[in-house]
UniProtKB/TrEMBL annotation:
Domain commentary: Has three domains with a flexible linker between the domains II and III and assumes an 'L' shape. Domain III is highly mobile and contacts RuvB.
Domain Helix-hairpin-helix DNA-binding motif class: 72-91, 107-126
Any GO BP: DNA recombination
Protein's organism: Marinactinospora thermotolerans DSM 45154
Family, per entry: Belongs to the RuvA family.
Entry's localization field: Cytoplasm
Superkingdom field: Bacteria
Molecular-function GO terms, alphabetical: ATP binding; four-way junction DNA binding; four-way junction helicase activity
HAMAP family hit by this protein: DNA_HJ_migration_RuvA (MF_00031)
Protein name: Holliday junction branch migration complex subunit RuvA
Subcellular location, principal: cytoplasm
Annotated SMART domains: HhH1
This protein's record includes keyword Metal-binding: no
Length: 202
């Protein structure tokens, strides 16, 4: 298993980053919040999880070990694959997922694109004793950059919403609505979740 990558960020798209390690560019799938903290040309370290399929090897990258561990544990629930697990972590922090499962808050889980009411009930039932109690204390790896600047957060939020399955037009509208209320907030994680709440209500 590849537990982490540490190297220079060689490139970044809306869903992936390329980290150069020993002269080799490793592509990692990341949540929008993690991607926002990876700046091209800068050194970075991400926790990783390698998903092996018959036709592919896919590396997923995370801000810290806790996020990676939750990504792996939620996949033990039937019907939850890596894409849906990544979407869950794009919408909720690891502790928010723990609280939702512990409180049987299916409404919080259905905010994730791809999870309906029955799916949320199944996830609660199957993960009840697997995620543990909220930790409330977690920090990013050294090497991750500061939150995105006001100029850059909006494209990250729009890209994150589109990658989670929302139409581009709806993603743009939600980002505009959040921008009007964001003030000095530039944390992509906070802004993405605010946009998702708007889309879920709509």
């Amino acid at each position: 298993m590849i537990a982490f990558l540490s190297g220079r960020v060689a490139g970044r798209t809306g869903t992936t980053a390329v980290i150069e390690v020993g002269g080799v560019g490793m592509t990692v799938q990341c949540t929008p919040a993690t991607l926002a903290r990876l700046q091209v040309g800068e050194p970075a370290t991400v926790a990783t999880s390698l998903v092996v399929r018959e036709e592919s090897l896919t590396l997923y990258g995370f801000a810290d070990d806790d996020e990676r561990d939750v990504f792996e544990r939620v996949q033990t629930a039937s019907g939850v694959g890596p894409r849906l697990a990544l979407a869950m972590l794009a919408v909720h922090t690891p502790d928010a997922l723990r609280r939702a499962v512990a409180a049987e808050d299916t409404g919080a889980l259905t905010q994730v694109p791809g999870i309906g009411k029955k799916g949320a009930q199944r996830i609660v039932l199957e993960l009840k004793d697997k995620l543990g109690a909220p930790r409330d204390v977690s920090g990013p790896f050294d090497g991750l950059a500061a939150p995105a600047s006001p100029v850059s957060w909006r494209p990250q939020v729009v890209s994150g919403l589109v990658n989670l399955g929302w139409p581009a037009k709806d993603a743009e509208s939600a980002a505009d609505a959040v921008a009007a209320e964001a003030g000095d907030e530039t944390d992509v994680t906070v802004l993405l979740r605010a946009a998702l709440r708007r889309l879920s209500r709509a």
